[in-house]
Amino acid sequence: MQLLDWFTSFLPEWIREPGRFYAYYAETLYLIPLFPFVGFLINGLCRKSISREASGLVACLGSGLACFWAFLCFFAANGPSEVAGTGTDVEFPFRALHAVYANWIEVGSFQCAFGLYLDQLSGVMTLVITGVGTLIHIYSMGYMGHDKAYARYFAYLNLFLFAMLLLVLGDNLILLFVGWEGVGLCSYLLIGFWYEDAAKAAAGMKAFVFNRVGDLGFLLGIFTLFAVFGTVNFVSAPVKVGTSQYPAQANRIERPDPEAVLGAASESERARLSEPKVFLPAEPGLFNYAEALRALTAGKGAAIGNIPLDYNAAAAGRGNLDLSGNLARDVFPNGTVAFAVALACLLLFVGATGKSAQLPLYAWLPDAMAGPTPVSALIHAATMVTAGVYMVTRLGAFFAFSESVLAVVGVVGALTAIFAALCGLTQTDIKKVLAYSTVSQLGYMFLGAATGAFGLAIFHVVTHAFFKALLFLGAGSVIHGMHEEQDMRKMGGLRRKMPITFWTMLLGSCALSGVPFTAGWYSKDEILGTVLAKAESGYGGVWWLLYGLGIVAAFCTAFYTFRLMGLTFFGSCRAGAEKEGRIHESPPVMTVPLMILAVFSLVGGVWFGSGAELPHFVSPLRPSYDTHLGHALNLALTTLAALGGIGLALLLYVQGGKLTKPEPEQGLFYKLSLDKFYVERFYDQTVTGAFRLGSEVLHLLVDVLLIDTLLVYGLGGLVRWIAGLLRRVQTGVVNVYAAGIVCGALLVLYKLLKG
Amino acid sequence: MNWNELYELLPVGVVLGTALVVVFLDLALPKKERYVLSMVAMGGCLLALGALAETYLSIAAYYKSTPPWFAAAGSAPSGGFNPFILGGAFVIDGFGLAVSVVALLAGALSILSSAHEDLDSNLTSGEFYGLILLGVSGMMLLGLSHEFLTLLVSLEIMSISTYILAGARRDTPGAEAALKYLVLGAFSTAFLMMGIAFFYGATGGFSLAPASLKVLEQIPSSGYLLRGALGLLLVGALFKVGAAPFHFWIPDVYQGAPSGVTGLMATGVKAAAFAVLGRLAFETFGLTYSYDWCWVFAAAAVLTMAVGNFLALKQDNVKRMLAYSGIAHTGYLLLAFLVSRNTTEAEAAEQLQNAAFYLLAYGVITLGAFGVVGLVREDGRRLETFDDFAGLAKEHPALALCMACFMFSLAGLPPFAGFFAKFLVFRSAIDAGYVLPAVLGILTSVASLYYYLRVVRAMYLDPVRPAALGQEPVPARCRYAWTSNLVIYGAGLVTLVLGMLPQWLTGLVW
Amino acid sequence: MFYLIRTQEAGTKDEVHDNSVSERARGVAPAMEDFVFLLAAGLCVLSACAIVTCKNPVYSVILMLPFFLGMATLFTLLQASFLAAMEIMVYGGAILVVFLFVIMLINLRPEDLKDDFNFATYFTYVVLCGLVGGMILSFARAGVPHDGPLEKAFAQEIGVLQPDEAAPKEAAAAEGEAQDGASKPAAAPAPAQRKGRAAFGSVGSLGVPLFTQFMIPFELIGLLLTVAILGAMVLSKKKA
Amino acid sequence: MHGWLLLGADELSHWLGNLLTFRLASCLALAGALFAIGAWGVLARRNVLLVLISVELMLNAVMLAFVAFARAHVNLAHVTGRPYAGESGQIFALSIIALAAAEAAVGLAIVIAYFRNKGSVDTREISSMRG
What pLDDT shows up at residue A171? Predict the structure, then answer.
């Protein structure tokens, strides 16, 4: 330990003890997104002239420096809060960093500043994004080594990091939305990175369209929240723009004095006195409102009940809660806060289903595997697709107000988890298996969020980022080694040729399957355990059903994961003798990130404490029921499901490793699963077909008839005709011009004479 | 009459003095040294600009809170300063000074862009520069006139100088342009004079001050005379600004005149004529006049926008297209002069400010655009059609870029000055309650994009124009002259700066 | 109504005097005035029509002479004797001659003088111009009613054909007032005004305002003539 | 409002009777008529010189109106409260003579300049720029 001190004593003080430079780090939060942005600019502007080495180095530096700074900021913030009652948990003291750099949009009552906010949630997300992102950048240098658009690739990748960090760090919904659209754009660009291939370009387009559907809901949700609360900021602003002298100001809540309550004369008087008083800061943010609503409704049972919107007057006597969103009375004249908030949350969740590929908007994600494999690892597994989960968690305080909303989230999550897991059982493309697995795991995350323990969802996001990135990168390594072969039926027996890839992927598979004491086990087990606890606590029978679905999905997960392992690494090689000889292990620039991620996949869960600390650290929200973690029944069932699935897969695919036709069964279920339950074909037939028909009709009506015929030819022709007439008047003869003057004079004089 | 007040007209005096100096200097200079004349004339303009600034600052000191934008009755300044100088012949207020600035800039820039012409031609002679300066002095006096006699004489000084300037090159198109301009100008001036006669009959005086109309309380019937006066005056003033249906002269005259003079006519003359219109609309027949006549402006504005834009669509000649676009811009500018009966003095002052901004922005853009058109020539032959501009961007990228800037700005695209100017004008029309003309203005200004972009397309997308006979592409066709380039680059820069930082000007002046 | 005010004001001095002037004006030379007016107006209109319709431009220019003479007569009738002189001198002596000179210089051949007569166009032009004239007439008639103040004021000075005749009277009256002391200062017209009335239309009455109040426009007209001279130089120089 | 053009027979004789006497209204009527004749010339004549002469006719009409009004206003000075109420009209008319002279000089110079180039003074031929 003294040795460590001796080593660190050479470091500058602002690295050794970042906590002492709290204000400094708060003001330099912008550096985190800035580094990748600079990398994007360099790579984007000089993509023609920059050399390969320099391009990769710049990109990795952009990402790595962002990671470095994110860690420093995180550690600077990690300490006891100086301001009491900032909403932070006493168990995990954390001083949120908040800096407002500029007034951004000011339109009427709508004010939105450009500010960054790093609290526990965005801090953890930032660490994951920059950390995993850096590893994937390094890996990409090897994987994309032969691509001709090397600089363009890294420019996009850096731009993605920038947008994702903006999404996570933004201190208001608008900035979040900007980042949200930014990552969508980068996703589109990177899916269609090899745009010469029409199918890949189409996949990019598909992702874009599906996301737009969700974005509409997201925008409506933002509008609704603004309509109710009159702000889009998460937290109240620091005292001064450009500085962070104080962290986000919190509500001051005065708890009732027990003695005064007991000494009250009448029952009504006692009820009045027993309610807490909430005082909001000067410019309250959404969190302030959520907290105030919670505090005010805490004594009234689990649900927040029906708070009338003209709560102002009522609240005036007890605190200064101000729900004076300008539009509130117009939009929800007879509604309640509960209703409005629930509506907003449902709309926001529509956005989340788009971005996080939940039912019914999941279909773009499997197709998104058209992009380069590191992109799949970074964007379509570890970071971007979890933006929906992040957003739900960020606004968890509002989601938690309505059990119905939570139930909707839970049902969608669980159905997605089981559906995608079933689809994944029979896929033959190695990346497709992982893609469906990602969809399934995202379903788990939403299921976790639906229990009201939002931190659990983020915990799973973190562990999932480790092992899914590992699996994708491993798959990429396999594809790289097999020279762009993705079909698992043509693989097999790779464990001797690619030992590092095999062992790291094995660890990742264990984590994904939920083998006890791996990272995935901790997070998934806790999610399922909390669902069980919720079911037990009497939140309706649906939770029992969701728990059951979760267990089955866990079984399927374990099965398809080890089917993948079996088909890829065991048995004999089915690639053909010519190709078999060229199979090789990937270079260290690719395997080292694999090994690092493998370590995290193995111990990630343990490293964050016993698996219980991170969720609580991330989200101070607690479910209102007894979660009773470590439930014996749950422990037994999840372990059984995982081991059962693994065992079955091993039985089928490793024992029969010699089989040349790996898929003998052609039953009904197999076909269903292989064809993804015909959902996409259904989409094609109904939604797309209807759209085609509608657009055809509109094309005829609007384009051909209205615009082409009436406006362009009709109006344009009319203009041309009039212009022709006027040109004939312009004869060039002075007398005619004078006659024009006389006519004009006559008109003016006649009108003036008439009055 | 206090003759010390003549000091306020010092800028005009500087211009006149320079004119005389230039004319006599020409006699003393050998032909080779003629470039000195343009420098002297330019120097005089700059000196006059300085004197203008001095005048502005000296009167601004009297207006502590509100700048002296609109010296109508009732808003006379405090502090003992009387803006109506020389017995009410002239008024020194912000609007008049702004118009003077536009006129001076126009004069200076047209002198600069004519400075590279042949030494043998009239366009570099001392008389030519002298006439430009005399015309500019007429414009300045017209902007400051507050009485019909001085107004008429100033108008004639300006008009006759420009008639001569239009024909100064003494070629056929120039003489034709000058002839048409003179005949129609004299014809419309007759209407204007008849209007003044009626005004005199109604009020017994020539003062533009609204107090003149108080006579109506004692001679009620002369209200009809006054209406006749209004109609005839409007005919004369609308002719000078080139509003439809009095616009016929504009395309022919603009096309035939030398490019520098065309720039002067399109900016300085127009600004001065709009000064007359502004004084009539906001002072004499403005806020206190009981009869609501503003529909004349509204109707003329709509008609002008339509005619200008429609006819510009069908032009093949860039200069003629710019002339028609000038007509269209007159229509937009008329929107700023729409007063309703509810208009307060503060609103009127703001409208005049908007109009002044428009005039300045449009003036700079137009001078630049005509400067570019004036440069494109070949073997002394002027090239003015769209085809002649084909591929200009490859040969002269900087000039083409500036021209594209001017075109976008004229079309009213952000972030150029034209956008902000149009925005101000449309807003003031909507504020005055004339929504339909403003909407039509926006629509026509969208349509105008078509013909402005034709120039840009020709310069950037069309292949280099093949020679008339052979297949060889024509080499450089711009006559390079650093004076013209100075004007063009400067105008391009100002266009961009005014578009991005309009408050740079608005904050400086009002 | 204005007329009443006017007579009351005048009546303070001598009630009958103003009426008598008016009566005398109507009585002494009404027919003569109207006759001269009609003659001059007819001459102007006819010669103007001839100028406009004459085929040969030389005739048109020559016909301008009777037109200007008629105008000068009208100006004299309207007591603008100086202006009448100017009309003859400048228009008849200078402008007309210049026009004639230019026509001679151009020396058009007969085939250049052909005006193709298109009845429809011609008729349209006549109607248009007739309408303009009618408009001006209508405004004038509406603004100058028969017994309106403007018309009355116009008619009151009809009798003062000889300014010298009226001037001594008023001067004597003014002197008498001055001798009376300040008994009725309000009724007395200001000396300048009185002087102006006395010599209205003469060189003296125009000279004073021209060189005091209208000094600036007068000087500007000089500037205008400078412009014209410069312009003539620029335009008529031989091409290089 | 007095009607124009639509006059009954009685009114016509009355109106003509008024016009034929020496009055302000009849002077203005004459001015209007001369103005119209001048405008007619401008519109109808193809010879540019005659067009210029017609403009001179119009200016004379304006002068006539000015002088007629001047005669009325010299007696209305105490109502309008203007110094030199009558004289100013005559001075304006005087200025118009000067303006007309200047305009005529420049106009004729331009005509000569054009004639030197093209040998024509016909307005139909002075129309190379059109459309």
Answer: 87
The band of A655, judged by pLDDT with boundaries at 50, 70 and 90, is: low
CATH fold group of domain D23-129: Helix Hairpins (1.10.287)
**Secondary-structure class of domain C13-188 per CATH:** mainly alpha
Contact between chains at A745 and C132 (C-beta distance less than 8 A):
yes
Please check whether residue A568 is in contact with residue A430, taking contact to mean a CB–CB distance below 8 angstroms.
Answer: yes
C56 band by pLDDT with thresholds 50, 70 and 90: confident
| Closest CA–CA distance from residue C166 to any residue of chain A (Å) | 41
Per-residue tokens: B101: 């600035």
Cα-based distances in Å from C3 to A13, A751, B58, C139, C144:
102, 32, 48, 22, 14
Average of pLDDT values for B339-349?
A: 77
Coil vs helix vs strand at A583: coil
Chain A residues with CB-CB distance to B under 8 A? 719-720, 722-724, 726-727, 729-730, 732, 734, 736-738, 740-741, 743-745, 747-749, 751-753
Q: A546 φ, ψ to 5°?
A: -60, -40
Cα Rg of chain D, angstroms:
20
**What ranges do the domains of chain C cover?**
13-188, 202-240
The answer, yes or no, to whether residue D30 has pLDDT greater than 60, is: yes
Residue A105, classed as helix, strand or coil, is: strand
Among the listed residues B426, B448, B421, the one whose alpha carbon sits nearest the alpha carbon of residue B437: B426
Residue that terminates a domain, selected from A263, A294, A325? A325
- Rounded Cα distance between B425 and B417, Å, is 13
Q: Which residue type occupies A618?
A: V
Q: Is C233 a residue whose pLDDT tops 80?
A: yes
**Interchain contact D26–B (C-beta under 8 A):** no
Residue count of chain B, please give it. 510
Question: Using one digit for the tens of pLDDT, what is the confidence trace for A666-690?
Answer: 666 666 666 666 666 666 666 667 7
Top pLDDT among A484 and B438 is at B438
* Cα atoms in the 13 Å half-sphere on the side-chain side of C107: 2
Q: Which domain holds residue A290?
A: 239-325
Q: What are the residues whose beta carbons fall under 8 Å from the beta carbon of D34, sequence distance 6 or more?
A: C44, C45, C48, D57, D58, D60, D61, D64
Q: Are A441 and A556 in contact (CB under 8 A)?
A: no
Q: Note whether A23 and A167 are same-domain residues.
A: yes
Q: Which position has the higher pLDDT, B162 or B496?
A: B162
Residue corresponding to tokens 């969700």: A214
Report the number of distinct structural domains present in chain A.
3
- Name the residue type at position A64: G
C→B interface, C-beta within 8 Å = 2, 135-136, 139-140, 142-145, 148-150, 212-217, 220-221, 223-224, 226-228, 230-231, 233-235, 237, 239-240
The verdict on residue A256 lying in a domain is: yes
- How large a percentage of chain B has pLDDT more than 70? 89
The closest CB to that of D33, out of C75, C83, C133, belongs to: C133
Domain boundaries, chain D: 23-129
CA gap A368, A346 in Å, rounded: 26
Is A90 a member of any domain?
Answer: yes
Is 70 exceeded by the pLDDT of residue B388? yes
Closest by CA to A309, choosing from A327, A294, A286, is A327
Q: Give the residue from chain C lying closest to D2, CA to CA.
A: C142
CB B214 within 8 A of CB B73: no
C135/A750 Cβ within 8 A: yes
What H or E segment, with its residue span, contains residue A315?
helix A311-316
The whole-angstrom separation of Cα A251 and Cα A281 is 6
- Where do the H-state alpha helices sit in B314-396? 318-335, 345-375, 392-395
**A-interface mutation test, from B248, B290, B449, most A Cβ less than 10 A away:** B248
**pTM of this structure:** 0.64
Q: What ipTM, to 2 d.p.?
A: 0.89
Q: What is the pLDDT of residues B12-24, one digit of tens each?
A: 999 999 999 999 9
What is the Cα Rg of chain C in Å?
24
